[in-house]
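Each record in this resource describes a single protein on a pair of labelled lines. An example record follows, reproduced without changes.
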Amino acid sequence: MPRLIALLLAALLALPALAIDRPFPANILRGKMTPGYFPDVKIDGVARHLAPAARIFNRDNLIEMPAAVRGADIVVNYTVDMNGDIDRIWILSAEEAAQKVPTAAEAAAAAAK
């Protein structure tokens, strides 16, 4: 019985660790990604290139190989490097996608003001 109680207590203490939000940088943009042949991706219907050292993080915050990503119109956060290539992509969960983040078009409009 004491082992069961200790196990239950340990499980309850571990639950908050599973609810850690992913830290996104301040310069992220939001879009819908359709992967293509490396290094090509489409974000919001616009053809873009992945940087040579690009990283794609899945919903569990683990790195996915670009060739392993399948689907269309996947909601993502991403960052752009100084060459205009996409260097980091985070595939979002439904809860993360519900949070407001600017799209590339909104960011460009804000920069033009």
About this structure: The radius of gyration is 18 Å. The helical segments are 2-18, 94-97, 104-112. The chain has three helices and six strands.
